[in-house]
Amino acid sequence: MPYLAVSLGVFWFRNAWATLLGFHFAILLSLALAGSKLPVKILFRSGHICWVVLSILLSGGVGISLYLFRFSFGITSDLPTQIESLGLNPSNWIAFIAYFSLVNPFLEEYFWRGVLGSPTKGPSISDFLYAGFHALVLTGSIPLVSMIYSLTVLVLAGWFWRQIAREDSGLLAPVLGHMAADFTILVVIYRMAL
Fold first, then answer.
1. Under 8 Å CB-to-CB from 115, ≥6 apart: which residues?
2. SS3 breakdown of the chain: % helix, strand, coil, rounded to 5?
3. Helices (H), 109-171
């Protein structure tokens, strides 16, 4: 359902808010239909502050790296037009960044690392499923090589956050790392779209 929601938002509605809210609705509906028994308090649990700090620093570095190497990624020259065509403009960008950075990490981490997570140390199908739906969002914005690179980084991020959750017996470190990644990436895209 999350893949369908993102596809509809990006390709049918062509609206960033519809995509994000539809994605969140699909996650919540999937959780309800699956009858998830995972306690929500796991989102706020961490056994070691070092996992939290490591997750925030490494994950926040993704947005910083995007900014430093933005010309190497081959991001489309009409990015401002593409962003505007998705309904994001100066009047709602800040609200979008705030909602995306503060709400999205809780829902995604609970879904991808909590409910669909795996206790394995190696790669899991959930790592690839997590990365895959991002391809729908990136389609048409970056060249194929950059897409493959981005998806590889997202698989590794999913694996990394899953390992932290496994070692730390909680999702707080992955949630805060995910927040740092989302926030820094969106701020970079916002600045590039000005």
1. 31, 34, 36, 38
2. 75, 0, 25
3. 125-138, 144-168
Tens of pLDDT, residue by residue over 99-146, are 999 999 999 999 999 999 999 999 999 999 999 999 999 888 888 999
Q: Where are the domains of the chain?
A: 40-193
Q: How far is CA 33 from CA 21, 26, 27, 165, in A?
A: 18, 10, 10, 24
| Alpha carbons 21 and 55: distance in angstroms, whole number | 26
Q: Are 2 and 23 in contact (CB under 8 A)?
A: yes
Distance CA 165, CA 35 (A): 21
User: Using CA of residue 54, residue 20, residue 146, residue 142, what is the dihedral sign?
Assistant: negative
Neighbours of 30 (CB within 10 A): 16
Q: Tell me how crowded residue 175 is: count the other CB atoms within 10 A of its CB.
A: 27
Rounded mean pLDDT of 2-11?
95
pLDDT at 105: 98
Q: What's the pLDDT tens digit per position in 134-184?
A: 999 988 888 899 999 999 999 999 999 999 999 999 999 999 999 999 999
CB contact at 8 A, 159 and 127: yes
